Backbone:
């Protein structure tokens, strides 16, 4: 108890660099002290009153609140301060911040997610300089670098609303994403549209008050390019009628189960020799390339079966995302 002022002053110095509006103090004290207290309470039949641990926590919290002008909170505090009197140590952890925004991708050949190191599988090795990932450009890497720097954070975890091919573009208002900023020092920020490397732009970002629900479905519109050796134009145009408000069955290899997604419309935009271009509006979770090619019959029905001709997605520009709109679960 005699060291409380000294410990509290140390805490004040340690938390000066953090942006916060609330905090909570936790304490770890020597088990021998607790045992002695229990013995005295039992010996003299003492009931009620503050325990030594509670009193240390209470007095430390009062001191910090007085000096910092911040409030004590037991419900989702910005700072968690753990005082270990046994080890004479103070551990500070900060509550995560959540950011939601959209990204645009103007350059082909850029992955959405970082690619794992083939040697260490994210464990870290000399080849990847102990990062666990390859150096290839990705949307994830650019967003993570920007947000880590902006909030002075240890890590950024991103949740995606669907994914696109490496060679696909993301246009217009972009594709939404949600980021958890882990252990941030700064908590407040104002966002403008941010141009990043490799043709990536982050737009419409904002800080959320609470952890968002990220398992909503979504509807997307894509422009699809594929090759089909079919001279019958009417047969290709039949795709519009066939897939009008059509449910397709998808087999997930990872989950080993079937599920259903809806295609709302298919609109043919251009047919030139073997090249076909169309717009498709559908629910998320449909692999566009497999819908076109019918690969492994993972999606039924597919373009390949409906036309009865081999459909090959364009290697350089298989599809471009025009918009992604989040929807609530059905």
Residues:
């Amino acid at each position: 108890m005699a060291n409380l002022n000294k410990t509290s002053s140390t805490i004040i110095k340690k938390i000066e660099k953090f942006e916060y509006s609330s905090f909570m103090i936790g304490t770890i004290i020597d088990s021998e002290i607790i045992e002695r207290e229990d013995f005295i309470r039992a010996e003299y039949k003492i009931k009620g009153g503050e325990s030594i641990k509670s009193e240390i926590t209470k007095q430390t919290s009062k001191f910090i609140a007085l000096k910092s002008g911040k409030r004590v909170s037991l419900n989702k505090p910005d700072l968690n301060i753990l005082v270990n009197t046994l080890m004479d140590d103070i551990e500070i952890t900060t509550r995560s911040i959540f950011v939601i925004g959209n990204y645009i991708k103007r350059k082909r050949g850029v992955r959405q997610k970082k690619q794992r190191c083939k040697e260490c599988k994210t464990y870290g090795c000399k080849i990847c300089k102990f990062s666990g990932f390859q150096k290839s450009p990705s949307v994830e890497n650019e967003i993570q670098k920007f947000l880590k720097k902006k909030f002075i954070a240890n890590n950024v975890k991103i949740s995606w609303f669907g994914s696109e091919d490496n060679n696909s573009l993301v246009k217009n208002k972009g594709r939404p994403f949600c980021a958890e900023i882990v252990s941030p020092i700064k908590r407040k920020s104002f966002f403008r549209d941010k141009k990043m490397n490799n043709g990536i732009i982050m737009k419409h970002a904002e800080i959320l008050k609470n952890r968002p629900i990220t398992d909503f479905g979504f509807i997307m519109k894509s422009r699809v390019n594929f090759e089909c050796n079919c001279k019958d134009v009417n047969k290709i145009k039949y795709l519009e009628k066939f897939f009008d408000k059509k449910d397709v069955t998808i087999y997930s290899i990872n989950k080993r189960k079937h599920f259903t997604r809806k295609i709302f419309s298919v609109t043919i935009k251009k047919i030139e020799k073997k090249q076909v271009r169309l717009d498709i509006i559908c629910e998320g979770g449909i692999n566009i390339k497999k819908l076109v090619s019918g690969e492994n019959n993972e999606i039924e029905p597919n373009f390949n079966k409906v036309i009865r001709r081999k459909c090959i997605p364009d290697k350089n520009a298989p599809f471009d995302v025009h918009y992604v709109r989040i929807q609530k679960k059905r």
The chain has a mean pLDDT of 93. The radius of gyration is 28 Å.
